[in-house]
Amino acid sequence: MGPKYNSQFNSMSHFDDSLDELDEVMSYVSTTFSEADAQCLSPDRCPGTPKLPVGEITGEANKEWKHPKFHFSDFVDIQVESMLYRVPRAVMQESEGFRSNLPTNKSSSSLYVSGITTQEMEAFLDVSDAREVTGDDKFTFEQWAGALATANRLEIPRIRSYVTRRLQDSLSQLDPFDCIDIAIKYRVHEWLVQPSIRICERPEPLSPAEVLRLGSERTSAVCRVREKLSVYKYESVVTWLRENWPQNLYGGAWYNPPPLQWEAKAEAREAARAGEMKRLIELETVLSKPDFQSPVSQPTVDTVPQGMPHPRYWQTDLRTIRVRNCLYQLPVRYFEKPSLLGEIQSHGDSTLDPGDFVMVPHDVLVSDWNVFLEIVTARPFDEPLLSLGFSSWVTGLRLAMRFGHDSARRYILQRMQTDFTEQDPIDLLEAAKIGDAAQSDWLQGLYKSLSQRKGSLSSEDMRRIGEKAMAEVWTLRDRYMWEAGQDGRDDVF
C-alpha cells in the first residue's frame, strides 16, 4: 500500500506547491461560492461512482493542512455515573455552568457530572448530533426528554431551546396533567399554558386525584380562572347578541339571520373567548410562570469511581479523509450506515483500519468538498440555519449523487424546492435531472411554467433539462398553443 500511496502523492506534487491550492484549502464556503462566479451546471462534469483509494498516513506527505472546521481533534472527557464519554469541546464550551471548569487538552482527568443518568446523556449526544440531511424524526419522546434533562444540567441554552420547540407538538397529544408534570420536571414555562387552558375550559370539575396532582396553589388558580371564564362567557354572549344580532331594513331584529354571516360572527366570538382564556391563565403566574428550582450546576472534580469508556461515544477512533492537500477528521460513527457519510465508505476497496484514511478522488476540489460537508453536517439548531447560493446546492447535489449519499440528495432537492421558487425553471429542471428527482407536483409546475414561456427553447436549454423533461414540456406546450389558437391569442410566440 505504501508504493501505491507514493505514486499518487508524487502525481499530486504540483498541487502541493501551489499557492492557489492553499487558498482553496483555507477558504470558507461563504467566500468560495458566489452566484456571479457560478460555473455552468453541466451534468457531465461528474463521472460515475468512484472507488476511493485507501492509504496509510505516513510522514512522507508534506504541506498537508487540517481543515479549520472539519478536523475534529479537541474533545472533553465527561463521566456520568460509571460511564465515560468523549464530547466535542465546542459543545461543552456552550455550557454556562461548566465552560470555566473544563479540563485542558493536556489533562488526563475527566469531568464528572452528577444529576443525570447515562441514558439521558446518550440521548443528549444523539440529539446534539442530529443533522438536517437525516432529520430528527427518529428520536422517541423519551430521548427528547432525556436530551432536555441533560441540556438543563449542562446549561446549554441553544440545544435546550431546540428540544423544547421539537417537543411542543408532542405534548399536545398527552394528558394535560402529564404535560404539567413534564413541564415542571424539565422547567419549561412554555409548556404550561396550553395544558392549563385544556384543564380550565373543560366542562368537568377537578377530581380529588387531579387536585392532589396539581397541589393547592395551582388548584386555587385553576378555580379562579374557571369562575372568571364563566362570567366572561355569560356577559360576552349577552353583549355580543345585543350588538351583533342582524337587523332588518326597518331596524327590527331578524329571527332567522343569514347562516353564513352568523357563523362568521360566531367564529370571531370564539376567537375572542380563546384570547381571554389565555390572558386569564397568563395572569396566574403559578400556572404560567412558576418559580422553578434551579439545579445545582457546580461541577465536581473530586475523585470518582473508575469510569468505563462507552463503546459508542468514546470517540478515540476518528476517520481521516484527504481531499488533495487538505485533511478532514470526523467521528468514525459518521461512516456507519445510516449515518451521514456511511455511503462514502461503502465505495472503498476494503474495510478501513483505525490508522487508515480515505483519499477522495483527485478531481474533487477542496472547495466543493467543503460545500458538501457544510450540507451533510448542518444541524437543525444551528444559528443561523444553513443558507447557500443555488450553485453551491448544485455542487453538493453532484457530490451526493457521485458518492451515493441518498439522504443528502433528497435533502438538497427539498431545499431547492422551498428556497428557490423564483429560480429559472431551466436551472431547477437541470438540478432535478442531476439529482434524479421523482415525479412530483413541483416538477409538474416547472414543466408548466416552461411550456408557457414565450419563444422556443434553445438546444442548450434542451440539453440541460434532458429528454424526459423535454418530452413533458413539449406535451404541455402543444396543448397550451392549441388552446391559445382556439382563443385567438397571438401573445404566446
Succession of helices and strands: HHHHEEEEHEHHHHHHHHEEEHEHHHHHH
Q: Outline, from the CA principal axes?
A: flat
Write down the overall mean pLDDT. 78
Radius of gyration from CA coordinates: 30 Å
Q: Structural class, judged by helices and strands?
A: alpha/beta
Total tally of structural domains: 3
The largest sheet is: 5 strands, mixed
Low-confidence runs? 1-61, 297-301
Strand order of the largest sheet: 1-9-7-8-2
Distance between the termini: 63 Å
For the secondary structure, the number of strands is: 9
The total of helices stands at 20
- Strand fraction equals 5-15%
- Helical content class: 40-55%
Write the layout of secondary structure elements.
Elements: H1 2-11, H2 13-16, H3 19-26, H4 29-32, E1 54-56, E2 65-71, E3 75-80, E4 83-88, H5 89-92, E5 111-112, H6 118-128, H7 141-154, H8 157-171, H9 176-186, H10 193-201, H11 208-244, H12 259-283, H13 285-288, E6 308-309, E7 318-323, E8 326-331, H14 342-345, E9 356-359, H15 366-376, H16 390-402, H17 406-419, H18 425-434, H19 441-451, H20 459-486
Helix pairs in contact: 6-7, 7-8, 9-10, 10-11, 10-12, 11-12, 15-16, 16-17, 18-19, 18-20, 19-20
What are the key terms here?
single chain, 493 residues, alpha/beta, 3 domains, five-stranded mixed β-sheet, 20 helices, 50% helix, 9% strand, disordered N terminus
